[in-house]
Write a structure and sequence with these properties.
heterodimer, A: alpha/beta, Beta Polymerase, domain 2, B: mainly alpha, 6 helices
């Protein structure tokens, strides 16, 4: 099975609902779809004879300044046919929401929690959408491009005393 | 061969309580079994046969903070880990000491960002900083020897005796 077969079968099944196809340097097929079609497309890819039975990767991306701003990327692997396919779902900046895939692949659970933790993307019907990496009381979503880095000034001899003066040193 | 040949048949040795207490503290200082990142690998190396930390009475890593005197913060401290380290430190019984091992634990190292505490001294008070990324076992052992020198200067009320002046 090659890339053309995958894109042809997807076009036959969904037509214009696949917004466009892409392929980075002739690599795996990338299909851009909308959030509303995600469950349907993923179910088709899994249950069709193409048999994309394994969700390899799920992550969020923030393209600040672009519309749509956010993107959720899914990589599916067909172990039977030894091919991969990539699904990309664009999400708007104000309310990035996408349906969960935990019902289809258990592995989506933690990966969606990570995407929520880092980018604030909401996965509807997720069984427990909590922070997974950052502390529970963390404010903000650290991997969004507009989050400040929160770095500390680098200490040299000339500004060492100045930095130490406002650094919160611990007491006994 | 040992002390008995040096002491002859005196039977009694006089010394100060302070010296005996500090002698005991330095020669049986049990570290907490606690590593955070790659520095912990060097710490394990220091405890292994080649470098043999047990020469300094530190062969027993205690898995419980209540039995440990020393916490070696070996690695980067994330903001999520910081309260855990503080709790471990609070659970250790007095007197207790802290070594910040490596650049990350000392000042944040290369991880100058939102997720890493910029030096574990923001969370717990540090006695000795060991530089290096990661420090070699020799460096850690030197840090421990420095800490022992500090403990030997400790008075019974917990304050530190002045260091002997260094004449150059």
């Amino acid at each position: 099975m090659d890339n053309t077969t995958i894109s042809t079968r997807l076009t036959e099944q969904f037509g214009a609902r696949i917004q466009r196809f892409d392929s980075h340097r002739g690599g795996d097929v990338v299909a851009y779809i909308s959030a509303a079609d995600l469950i349907e497309v993923a179910t088709f890819l899994r249950d069709d004879e193409m048999s994309f039975s394994f969700l390899e990767n799920l992550c969020g991306v923030d393209y600040l300044g672009r519309t749509p701003r956010f993107e959720v990327v899914y990589h599916l692997l067909s172990m039977k046919n030894r091919v991969r396919v990539c699904l990309k779902v664009g999400l708007d900046a104000t309310n990035p929401t996408v349906p969960t895939l935990t019902g289809m692949w258990q592995t989506a659970n933690y990966q969606e929690r990570e995407a929520y933790d880092m980018f604030g993307i909401t996965f509807t019907d997720h069984p427990g959408l909590d922070r997974i990496l950052m502390p529970e009381d963390w404010v903000g979503f650290p991997q969004r491009k507009d989050t400040p880095l929160g770095y500390e000034e680098v200490a040299f001899t000339f500004n060492q005393a100045q930095i130490d003066a406002h650094k919160p040193f611990a007491k006994e | 061969m040992g002390l008995e040949t040096k002491a002859g048949d005196m039977g009694v040795v006089t010394t100060s309580l302070e010296t005996v207490a500090n002698w005991g503290r330095t020669n049986a200082m049990w570290p907490l079994l606690f590593g955070l990142a790659c520095c912990a690998i060097e710490m394990m190396g220091a405890q292994g046969a080649n470098y043999d930390l047990s020469r300094f009475g530190m062969e027993i890593n205690r898995a419980s903070p209540r039995q440990a005197d020393l916490i070696i913060v070996a690695g980067r401290v994330s903001r999520k880990m910081a309260p855990v380290i503080r709790r471990l430190y609070d659970q250790m019984s007095e007197p207790k000491w802290v070594i910040a091992m490596g650049d990350c634990a000392s000042c944040g190292g290369v991880f100058n960002n939102y997720a890493i505490v910029q030096g574990v001294d923001e969370v717990i008070p540090v006695d000795v900083y060991v530089a290096g990324c990661p420090p070699r076992p020799e460096a850690l052992i030197d840090g421990i020897v420095q800490l022992h020198a500090k403990v030997e200067r400790m008075k019974l009320d917990g304050t530190l005796r002045d260091r002997a002046p260094i004449h150059v």
